[in-house]
Amino acid sequence: MSVRVRAGAQPVAAARVRIPGSPGCDGETDPEGTVDLDGCPSGARQLRVEAPGFARESRPVTLAAGTQSFEVALSPTTPLHGRVQDDHGALLERHLL
Q1: Are 11 and 80 in contact (CB under 8 A)?
Q2: Of the candidates 11, 50, 51, 3, the residue with the CA atom closest to the CA atom of residue 31
Q3: Would you say 95 and 84 are in contact if contact means Cβ atoms under 8 Å apart?
Q4: How far is CA 69 from its chain centroid?
Q5: What are phi and psi of 29, to 5 degrees?
Q6: Residue 2 has what pLDDT?
Q7: Are 29 and 15 in contact (CB under 8 A)?
């Protein structure tokens, strides 16, 4: 199975591509945004792709014997900055949104 990861028209290098629950069926994309995953079990699976600065992508795929190719488009994440305050305006530190 070959997976190409891109953001717009640009390849995404060093993205982690994996099939959860399938040991050894994971890898990292090369500078062209491509990774080959060999030995993945056939059947309905989830394909997950993660890369720093991009939203995580997960999609269902059906794997079969032979050569298959998938393309995944990632979207850049947008940092969120702000302050968490209580009802009286006091800053609440170390709170996650």
Answers
A1: no
A2: 11
A3: yes
A4: 16
A5: -70, 150
A6: 92
A7: yes
Query: Would you give the distance in Å from CA 85 to the centre of its chain?
Result: 33
The amino acid at 85 = Q
CB 37 within 8 A of CB 25: yes
pTM above 0.85, yes or no: no
Token readout for 91 is 């800053």
pLDDT of residue 97: 62
Residue 32 CA, distance from chain mean position: 16
Kindly give the parts of the chain with pLDDT less than 50.
Answer: none
CA quadruple 34, 38, 42, 44: dihedral sign: negative
The Cα–Cα gap between 80 and 82 comes to 7
